[in-house]
Amino acid sequence: MTGGSTLVVSLPIDWARRVGISQGDEVTLIRGADNSILITTGPKKREASRAVIKLFPDEKREDIFRLLIAHYLVGYDTIKLVSQEGFSTQDKKWIKDSVRQGLIGLEVVDESGDELTLQSLLNYEELSLEKTFQRMARIIKSMQRDSITALQDGDVALAQDVIQRDNEVDRFYLLIVKQLKAVIGDYNVAEKMGIEHQRECMGYRLIAKSMERIADHAEKIAKDATQMKNLDPKLNAEISEAGEFVWNSFDNVLACLFKRDVKAANKAIAESQEAVELVTAVSERVLKNRHNTTELAYLRSVLESLKRMAEYGVDISEMMINMSVKEPKGWA
Predict the structure, then answer these.
(1) C-beta separation of 184 from 226 below 8 A
(2) Domain span holding position 168
(3) What would the pLDDT profile of 215-270 be if each residue is shown by its tens digit?
(4) Do residue 96 and residue 171 come from a single domain?
(5) Is residue 191 domain-resident?
């Protein structure tokens, strides 16, 4: 204590030297939601981050793209691919198409015979996490409904469209992972994205994965729909009823996302479990009826996907309840 009313804390000299501050410099104190204080050297303009990925002759396209995804998720602004033997026209096209279809905001800005330079043009820090989830959810809901409609009507074109939409969901899933990684590394980014506690990132990561899995099952139903012809009207009606129950329960799960409403989350769990029971009952009736082996396999697949969708809804709601509970006082 100094002066009778001021509390003073000294800064470790090793830290001060490492960050380059000395007597007379200003530091910034940021109060966290858990009453912790973060000391920084003040707001600085973030320098653009660059990465160079050197590729070897025997590397497969898929391996290259996985490595590119890893750098995208970490948050590099510019990523340069350098090939020792040069890129073929087909390789360049494949990489460009894969990036366009899979990674939001990443664009090829320069290229030569042996180099491809990609740059992140999306300021993802200014896009709230809630909005990203909402956009992802809208696509998933349309996939759920349209996959069942395609099955009902034997609409192969609609089924193919649902299958294509899964790529959009995957793009938003990767963007969410990218956002969460940025939040973990920077308190300021967390505030911009509407995250109160950085420790919430694990919960949101699991929720995003469950949502991505629901989209995968909608895609699977659409693929099954392209193979099924002249489904029995009564059976068709039962599957449609089960499908409607599943996507309505998912609607209720999404309604309480980000609200921390335990009562609403518990209600969503009960409805999702009801959906599981309804799909299970339909499955049992299907197995009792006589169908040819191929048709039976597809029906089982469709109903299993509906069941898994409802179960993922339970997982999401349970995670929201877990995230709604505050930590004990003094826990950091």
Answers:
(1) no
(2) 126-324
(3) 999 999 999 999 887 777 888 888 888 999 998 899 889 888 888 789 989 999 99
(4) no
(5) yes
